[in-house]
Amino acid sequence: QVRLAESGGGLVQPGGSLRLTCAASGNIFSVYAMGWYRQAPGKQRELVAVITEGGATNYAEFVKGRFTIRDDNLKNTVYLQMNSLKTEDTAVYYCNVKGSTGSRIQLTGFDSWGQGTQVTVSS
User: Fold this and answer.
1) What is the mean pLDDT of residues 69-95?
2) Is the predicted pLDDT of residue 73 greater than 90, yes or no?
3) If we measure between CA atoms, which residue out of 18, 41, 15 comes closest to residue 123?
4) Cβ atoms within 10 Å of 113's Cβ, excluding its own
5) How confident is the model at residue 103, as a pLDDT?
6) What percent of the chain has pLDDT over 90?
7) What was the pLDDT predicted at 87?
8) What is the C-alpha to C-alpha distance for residues 75 and 72, in angstroms, rounded to an integer?
9) What's the rounded mean pLDDT across residues 103-111?
10) CB contact set of 61 (below 8 Å; sequence gap of 6+)
11) pLDDT number for residue 88
């Protein structure tokens, strides 16, 4: 079983910054992709940013130039640096990790979600 521990959410004023952290633990053999999604009240969950095991990144248009995703493969941890925050960035942010558990003899894929962390941007 893979567990995700998120941290770093909170209340910040418009124009401020926050950094989210998500650490994956368990019998992880490899990680294919790590990403962040968000869900605002009354809206569907949407992709914010994702990074693959090869280091390729993909950002939603509404965060390009403001948010940066990076990972630490040795720690199975992903970070989301959020700068120039806007009120419309207010949402619950969820970490997602895709990979495999087990050993080279037998691998099992997983697609795990964190519990979510609240980000509120308000003056």
Assistant:
1) 96
2) no
3) 15
4) 14
5) 85
6) 91
7) 97
8) 5
9) 90
10) none
11) 97
Dihedral (Cα; 16, 121, 93, 20), 10-degree rounding:
20
- For residue 56, the surrounding DSSP H or E stretch is none
Q: Taking the C-alpha atoms of 15, 67, 25 and 46 in order, what is their torsion angle to the nearest 10 degrees?
A: 100
Q: Given the DSSP bridges, would you call strands 10-12 and 117-121 parallel, antiparallel or unpaired?
A: parallel
Question: How high is the mean pLDDT of the chain?
Answer: 95
Rounded to whole angstroms, how far apart are CA atoms 2 and 16?
32
Q: Which bin fits 64, alpha (ψ -120 to 50), beta or left (φ > 0)?
A: beta
CB neighbours of residue 118 within 10 Å: 11
Distance between CA 77 and CA 35 in Å, rounded? 10
- Whether 41 contacts 110, CB under 8 Å: no
Local structure of 65: helix, strand or coil: coil
pLDDT at residue 104, rounded to an integer: 83
Q: How many helices (H) and strands (E) does the chain have?
A: 0, 11
Structure tokens at 86: 């806007």
